[in-house]
Amino acid sequence: MRGIWTTDHIRQAEERLLAGTLEGALMRRAAHGVAIQAAAMLDEHAGAVAGRSAVLLVGAGNNGGDALWAGAFLRKRGVGVAAVLLAPEKAHTQGLAALKRSGGRVLSVEESPQWIASADLVVDGIVGIAARGPLRPDAAALVDHIAAPVLAVDLPSGVEPDTGAVEGPAVSANRTVTFGARKPVHVLNPERCGDVVLVDIGLSGELGEPDLFQLDVADVAAAWPMPGPSDDKYTQGVTGVAAGSATYPGAAVLASGSAVHATSGMVRYAGTSADVVRWHWPEIVATGSITDAGKVQAWVAGPGIGTGREGKDVLAAALGKGVPVCADADAITIIAHQPDVLDARDPGTPLVLTPHDGEFARLTGSPPGPDRVGAVRAAADRFNAVVLLKGHCTIVADPDGRVLVNAARGSWLATAGSGDVLSGLVGALLAAGLDPWLAAGVAADVHARAGQLGADGVPVSAAGVLAAIPDAVRQVRALKP
Ligand SMILES: NC(=O)C1=CN([C@@H]2O[C@H](COP(=O)(O)OP(=O)(O)OC[C@H]3O[C@@H](n4cnc5c(N)ncnc54)[C@H](O)[C@@H]3O)[C@@H](O)[C@H]2O)[C@@H](O)CC1
Ligand SMILES: Nc1ncnc2c1ncn2[C@@H]1O[C@H](COP(=O)(O)OP(=O)(O)O)[C@@H](O)[C@H]1O
Ligand SMILES: [K+]
């Protein structure tokens, strides 16, 4: 699992590290990493390093210092370097001196637009982890002139470091070089960061427990249930799906079909769409209600069940079974409007809620807002449930405080019914006995892979995402180191 640390924790770790390090050494190490990536980008985008031009956008702090030092290193490789100082009197003293010694040019803000517009590369050292709020107008005006690829130092300026939120002018980078550890912005707003390159500055020993996690493919592969020689259809966990209605039979077909594809073993269906489910998935044992469905190890409840009396009864029946439940779609609306339905749940029984933004707002009374991680963490605590917030970037919080982030693999999953496919995956992994937080995260990972593989560059239906689940699982198993 990869760790991600908030800027407060990075700062504390940096302070501990600085106590035993020569002044300036860390910054030079960081800046050297920036220069290596800048040279690589010049080579890729402008066909050479020597003789090409880079403009540094330099803010008032150490982030600007990194850019200035990187400029001095680039001069040694024959790059023409010019720096725009947003606050000349506050520019990093040693960095500026190093750039000047190396023959780098310092531009006034007035003369900078043509230089920025014609540069082969722009290095964004406007602001780093001390950034608060969108770019200030003077910085935003410079960014408007950029035509070249952008290398961001630590993070793209204007993007909130701990939330990834963009609430005004901000840099869009092709690549970001960060130091010591990944910060939330890198996983919560990968589009603005471009490729993220991590430079080791010796911080790892000082970091402590991560604030967020990202699953590696090896984690997903290790968690994905595989039948063993002594397994039969029951021992791997039977998934129950309570979904669909006369109006929405498709939700039942998608959620239960997804569970069939996710794991070996068995899927039971309970609801009014039993005939259509049997027709699509002859391997499913389908009945009319949860009461006569037989034993399962986890229930998926909600997709297409409706939000009236019948839907509430279905959800209450699932919650009352004493096994883990993934409550999705209409189940979330029912919980939002009739929270007493949760009385059917024994508080020790795992519950996974999988809202999209609208359902989240219904459930909690307010939309997730810019701090999506904070919002999901609070909801997990409030409902004593794992909460998976859907979106381009999926966030999964456990009531014990663990949070993981699953980055999108394109946006093809923004299609009707793809959420039903996700709930089937979560349910199957719960039935297999995975820790609910991990089950939700692993399901989100394979769901995103299935979306990418199913689409393969053109729009894909939810049924197409479902059909790509075996390829996604195959991909995970093949990529396992
Ligand atoms: N502490 C260390 O040992 C290291 C720090 N490093 C660098 O230092 C950076 C942090 O440096 P600082 O703490 O000096 O702070 P920053 O350089 O992140 O920001 C400092 C200045 O940016 C300005 N600023 C804040 N918000 C802004 C906005 N929205 N628009 C425009 N300007 C804004 C403020 O005037 C502030 O003084 C890191 O991101 C990293 O790049 C690296 O050199 C690695 C080592
Ligand atoms: N722009 C996007 N990029 C990537 N994934 C997305 C995007 N929009 C939605 N998704 C994913 O698609 C799924 C949609 O689920 P949901 O909104 O419940 O749809 P439905 O109710 O139609 O099934 C979620 O897994 C969500 O994370
Ligand atoms: K920056």
Description:
The chain has 481 residues and is α/β, with parallel strands linked by helices. The protein folds into two domains: 2-209, Rossmann fold, CATH 3.40.50; 217-479, 3-Layer(aba) Sandwich (UDP-N-acetylmuramoyl-L-alanine:D-glutamate ligase). Helix content is 42%, strand content 16%. The protein is built from 19 helices and 18 strands. The strands form three sheets. The protein has a nine-stranded mixed β-sheet with strand order 12-11-10-13-14-15-16-17-18, sandwiched between helices. A seven-stranded parallel β-sheet has the order 4-3-2-5-6-7-8, with helices on both faces. It has a two-stranded antiparallel sheet with strand order 1-9. The relative contact order is 0.10. Residues 329, 356, 390-392, 394, 408, 411, 413-414, 416-420, 422, 447 line the site of adenosine-5'-diphosphate.
What attributes characterize this protein structure?
481 residues, alpha/beta, Rossmann fold, UDP-N-acetylmuramoyl-L-alanine:D-glutamate ligase, seven-stranded parallel beta sheet, 19 helices, binds ligand NAX, binds adenosine-5'-diphosphate, binds potassium ion, metal-binding, ADP-dependent NAD(P)H-hydrate dehydratase activity
